[in-house]
Each structure stands twice: as C-alpha cells, then as structure tokens.
Amino acid sequence: MPLDPTLAAEIEAAVAEGFDAQVEHTRNLVRFASLRGQEQACQDYVFETFRARGYAAERFAMDQAALDAHPGGGRIDERHSDAPIVVCHHRPAGQAGRSLILQAHVDVVPTGPLDLWRHPPFDPVIEGDWLYGRGAGDMKAGHAANLFALDALGRLGLQPASAVTIQSVVEEESTGNGALAAHLRGYRADAVFIPEPEDEALVRANTGVIWFTVEVRGRPVHVREMGAGANAIDALWRVVGALREVEARWNDERSRHRHFEDEAHPINLNIGRIAGGDWASSVPAWARADCRIALYPGTRAADAAAAIEEAVARFASGDAFLARNPPLVRFNGFMAEGYVLEEGSEAEAVLGRAHERATGKALTSLMSPSYLDTRVHALYENVPALCYGPHAENIHGFDERVSLASVKRSTTAMALFVAEWCGVERKASATG
After folding, report:
1. Which residue(s) pair with 216 in the sheet?
2. For the CA atoms of 347, 350, 351, 355, what is the dihedral angle to 10 degrees?
3. Are 248 and 313 in contact (CB under 8 A)?
4. By the 8 A CB rule, do 27 and 143 touch?
C-alpha cells in the first residue's frame, strides 16, 4: 500500500533536516584513501559509526576457500584485499513488513597523477552543488545514504518494521568478492538496494566482467642486432589486435541480447595496464597487459574465458614468432556474470512511487556496461536487486564529483522506499 502522504512529507523533511550531517559523514568517508588492500581504517570507522547508533554490528574476514569454490568468485591473488566486511543489523520489535539489504562498497580505484586533480583526491571539497573527491560518487555518497535513510525515520521516532541489514564491503572494484562473501555468510532479504551513482535511474541490465593478463616472452638482443631478436612488446600489441576482433565480434551480437540491442558498443575491452622490457637499448624480453572485457547477461564467465583463450591461441598459431612462443593468458580478478532485472516486481513498483515523490518524475531504467554487486543478489539469491543512486561525474577519472542535490533526492527516495517496503513501527530504545 502506498505511503500515507502526511508520513511521506514528514520523511522528506527528516531527510532534509539531517542532510548537513549526511554530507559531513560522506566527506569523512572520502578522507579515507581506501584503495584496494588499504580499506581497513575506513571499515573501522564504518563499524564504529554503526555501533554508535545502537545497531548490532559485526565484521568478518572473507572466506577465501569458499570464494574459490563458488562459480561467481573472482580470482584471488596477492593483491586481493584482506580488509573485513562490516555488517550491521536492525532488528524490529516484530516482523510486519518485508526485509531488506542495503549495501555499499568503500574500496576506490587509484587516483592517477595527482597534478591532474583540481583538489587533492582525498581532501573532499564542495564547490556549488558538487562534492569533489575520489570515491565521492563511487560510492561513498551512496554508502552514507544507506545509513542516513534510516536516520531520517529515526528522527520521526520510527524504525523499519522488518529486518534491515546494512553491508559495507570491499573488492567491488576488483573481484566482486566482498558482496559474494556476505552472501556466502548467509545474509538474505526479500529485496536488495545498492545506491551506486546511476543518475537517479534503475539499472535494468548489467554486463558481466572478466579480468585477465596476457604475457608474451620475446628474444632479447642488442638493438644493433634487432633483426635477430623478437620484440615482446610488438608481439603483445599483435595479440591485442586479436582481442579487439573478439570485442568487435561480441558487439556485433548485441541484437541477440535484450536491453543491449540499441547500444552502439555495450562490450568494452580495456587494456588497463601494460608493462614490458628492461632496457631502452635491448629488444624487450617480456611484455604483459592487464585487460578487462565485458560479457552479456546469460553468458557464462567460464565460457567467455575459454573463448578469450581460444582466440589468443588461434591468432598465435598463425604468427611466425608466437607460434613457437605462445602467449600466456591468466585470469586474475573478476569472473562475474551479468544479470537482467525483470520488470514487474513489487520492489520496483515501490521504488517507482518513492522516486516520483522525491523527484517529481517517473522512474526510468538503463543498461550499465560495468560491474555491479547487484549481480550477486540477482543471480544467486533470485530476489529483486535494485541499483539506483545519485548523479556523479568523472568516476574512475580526475576530479570525481557527486551532485549534492541529487544525493538529497536519491536519499529521500531511499527513505521513502524503506518506509513502504519494510513498513514502520515506533522506534525501540535500541536498534541492536
């Protein structure tokens, strides 16, 4: 049943009343340089924030053996984070409504050269409507919104009438193993809400992602005898050309995939990092590229990985040098499949009403050609997994920023969603 209009107006006012504190909390999160493997201090801050509000909070290490055994587990290597997963629990007096998981990640991507930023990336600055900083959009604004949507109800003396679990995870930018670890620990709910920066739209379809490296060994000689050697960097770029053909072929198949048929280029291959050689006057003996490629929902990650290996091997067999020195392909991060959020769920209808109340516009949906943790809940729990959040710009780039007006609107929509989906009851003296 839709929210009573009087209660909805009170919730909107409560979000606005707490918004200055929400912005300051978001800035505090941005100040943590929570790069991969360096998220512990940020997760400690999150844990203490949950406990200070009276929630039952816990933190636990990821079970790497369980992740290795799961088909959706990302490949674990020495770069994998050992930071804990932090979870807090709201336990209602009864169980009148529907349960909910609110999830966000604290890990952020590297900053790149600092001199290309207008402001230091971990010194959050507000200019007009924009909050600048690495992770401001992706996704510490959403992380804060999870907490402050519940705070808004608390200001009215209310709390959700059903169980709510807030999950703060890591490894979202590298393997997706943080969200999967929480799933493997047994947390479940009737719906999941992840406020990634999606321009106040609902993600309808999401690609899967695979990470891999390609390494080539060359034949080093002095450059004066260059013709007698074999340049590994040159050979690697020939392999990259073969991978571009895979990318083009998969993009040509988009008409066969619902929600992707009107996208010009839904499958993106990124050569994200390259290294090779040891000396400017020596023909390079080695070269390695770190790669990322997307895959359509319904495509098994293992099948896509096998197709990549086969394409590299086929190309190498026709190359005079690589036929005798085949490239080595290793999978070293995401091994994640995509998903489609089917239309017609009650959770989507509730979000639609909440969004329209908060923004004055009908809810729209989009396709996201990137990794999202909602895949865990959509694929392995078969529950409505809603990815919806504020407008942000330059995520993963320089001068990342999030619109504060959009954060306020999307937080309002979230609070309205929680109130209708979970129901509300009078607030207990402690939420834990």
Report:
1. 287
2. 170
3. no
4. no
Residue 205: CB atoms within 10 Å: 21
Q: What whole-number distance in Å separates Cα of residue 65 and Cα of residue 70?
A: 9
Exposed e or buried b per residue across 126-165, where buried means at least 16 C-beta atoms within 10 angstroms of its C-beta: eeeebbbbbbbbbbbbbbbbbbbbbbbbbbbebbbbbbbb
Q: Residue 197 CA to chain centroid, in angstroms? A: 10
Tokens of residue 264, six digits = 């010009």
User: How far apart (Å, rounded) are the C-alpha atoms in residues 32 and 130?
Assistant: 19
- Per-residue confidence in pLDDT tens, the chain, 432 aa: 799 999 999 999 999 999 999 999 999 999 999 999 999 999 999 999 999 999 999 999 999 999 999 999 999 999 999 999 999 999 998 878 899 999 999 999 999 999 999 999 999 999 999 999 999 999 999 999 999 999 999 999 999 999 999 999 999 999 999 999 999 999 999 999 999 999 999 999 999 999 999 999 987 545 544 454 589 999 999 999 999 999 999 999 999 999 999 999 999 999 999 999 998 988 889 999 999 999 999 999 999 999 999 999 999 999 999 999 999 999 999 999 999 999 999 999 999 999 999 999 999 999 999 999 999 999 999 999 999 999 999 999 999 999 999 999 999 999 999 999 999 999 875 444
Instruction: Let me know: does 401 contact 130? Beta carbons within 8 Å.
Output: yes
Mind listing the domains of the chain with CATH numbers?
A: 5-206+339-426 (3.40.630.10), 208-336 (3.30.70.360)
- At how many degrees (to 10) do helices 141-155 and 5-17 cross? 120
Tell me which amino acid residue 94 is.
Answer: G
Cα–Cα nearest to 98, from 326, 345, 360:
345
Rounded CA separation 395/374 (Å): 18
Q: Which two tokens stand for residue 204?
A: 């309808």
CA 254/CA 238 separation, integer angstroms: 26
Q: Residue type at 184?
A: L
Structure-token match 């340089």, residue found: 33
